[in-house]
Amino acid sequence: MKEYKKIILDETRNKEREVVCGRCDTKTNHKVLGSVELRWGNEDIQGMDDYEIIKCAGCDQISFRVGSSDSDTMDEDEKGEIIYPEKEEIYPSRLMGRSQLEDEYILPEKVRTIYKETHAALCTKLKVLAGVGIRALIEAVCAQESAKGRNLEKKIDDLVRQGVLTKKSASVLHRTRLLGNQAAHEVKVATDVELDIAFDIVENLLETVYIIPLRAEKLLEK
What we know:
The chain is an alpha+beta fold and 222 residues long. The chain contains five helices and eight strands; from the N terminus they run E-E-E-E-E-E-E-E-H-H-H-H-H.
């Protein structure tokens, strides 16, 4: 079976792509700064892969875009005509409405590392890893605050005793802990909504314990 490959440089240069910007946290126009188009195929299937360096028209952030389509993946448009949908991937991965905490640099090093990796797992739809990461984040905060207890449930309760958390916050955190348990021990995949809410709760924990107190200190210094 005869195969072919053809490379075309800058075929899409200066075109505009509407994609989610990791910094603007919304869909914005991006200009293609440079591209490599790979056309490939054989007697059975043909396809095209576009590799593009793109720049946000709003904030100038640079990203990398890959657009792929092939003759085996067909659909119909509104007029009933055959089209070949393009699969799009953007790097670094991002979700609209899910940018990292603005002051994540304030977090303790170990907590910050787990937070960034969990955020990345969430953005790339690695749901089991995101669930495990959410639990690991809670564990990391308990370790950082020297919470005592034979398990994570008792450690969260100890954060209440220390005054780090309110009873209401701890109650919410316990539900998030259970989601992480299911991901870690049962390999149970949470829904996008469940993960989104759980991550909101953990981010609120990080802001309450680390970010807001430091902001308050700086405000009092002025």
